[in-house]
Amino acid sequence: MNVANRPFEALQHETPGVLSAMVAVFSRDLRVALRQRQDLLNPLLFFVMVVALFPLGVSPEVSFLREAGAGILWVAALLSVLLSLDHLFRHDFDDGTLEQLVLQPHPLFLLVLAKTAAHWVLTGLPLVALAPVLGVMVHLDGNSIGVLCLTLLIGTPVLSLIGSIGAALTLGLRSAGVLLSLLIIPLYIPVLIFGTGTVASAAEGAPVAAYMALMGALLVLALTLAPFASAAALRISLSNG
């Protein structure tokens, strides 16, 4: 039987230990997602479409796009990650795998961290890879594109980590997508501000070390707190369900 179709309990018996359990969760999520390619392509297509259509709807002038390009790309990346969050726990909730995760002897927050890491690899990392091409489309210079990719590389894991909290809280609810957006978007604003501010400073030739330090601090804070909050939210959602 394919690993993607086997219950987590069977995988866990083959790979004992906390680290091995995290690897099992991570690899299983990758395999399951690769078999459902439409869920992977939708956020990426949305990202490309928003960036490509924005100049047509606002202004195609080079000076405007060069000034607003970082904001356009960051907003599009933020919305693309938000679009994919509903699937972070949904499939496991529907097939009962999530209950097995909660019942495991391993700390739930570490298993949630593994699932969030898989979500970032499948969603956030492709956005970072597409950013240079789309940066050229909005006439960003080479230095700005490099800084943009670096900010996305640091910022997109924060988006996934924060989003996992909202995805866990809204699990099993009707109209979860709307409620998820209302919960998560206000928490995304600091990441958006620092991400676009870093690229704007780089375009002006100003130092960006302070911005990068703040984004790094946000990443450390999210890595420290978000898995615990997501694990607690999952337990609440499952107990209420």
Automatic annotation (TrEMBL):
Pfam families registered for this protein in UniProt: CcmB (PF03379)
GO BP of this protein: cytochrome c biosynthetic process; cytochrome complex assembly
Alphabetized UniProt keyword annotations: Cell inner membrane, Cell membrane, Cytochrome c-type biogenesis, Membrane, Transmembrane, Transmembrane helix, Transport
Example of a GO cellular component annotation carried by this entry: plasma membrane
Annotated GO MF terms: heme transmembrane transporter activity
Cell inner membrane among keywords: yes
Transmembrane segments: 40-58, 70-89, 109-133, 145-171, 178-203, 209-234
Compartments where located: Cell inner membrane
Signal peptide segment: none
InterPro entries named in the record: Cyt_c_biogenesis_CcmB, Cyt_c_CcmB_bac
Topology versus the membrane: Multi-pass membrane protein
Function text: Required for the export of heme to the periplasm for the biogenesis of c-type cytochromes.
Listed name of the protein: Heme exporter protein B
Protein source organism: Marinobacter gudaonensis
